[in-house]
Design goal:
By secondary structure, the protein is α+β, with helices and mostly antiparallel strands. The chain has 4 helices and 2 strands; from the N terminus they run βααβαα.
Length: about 70
């Protein structure tokens, strides 16, 4: 199984639905969900993603729900 360490930008793409990158981000997380790959994410990436998503105008509830999925 391949392991990936994801950059903050992948999370931001996913949470903020940034085109054209959101589809690739979804694909990465879908592969992780079904067990084809494993992913690692730095804890600080979550904090940075929340900060950036709030700058994009997303509400904290939307951000947290997106990260939980």
């Amino acid at each position: 199984m391949k392991s990936l360490f994801l950059d903050t930008n992948i999370l931001v793409d996913l949470v903020c639905h940034r085109e054209p990158f959101v589809q690739e981000a979804k694909r990465i997380f879908a592969l992780a969900y079904i067990g084809r790959i494993s992913v690692g994410i730095c804890a600080l990436s979550y904090v940075n993603t929340v900060y950036i998503a709030k700058k994009y105008g997303y509400k904290i509830d939307e951000i947290v729900e997106s990260l939980k999925k």
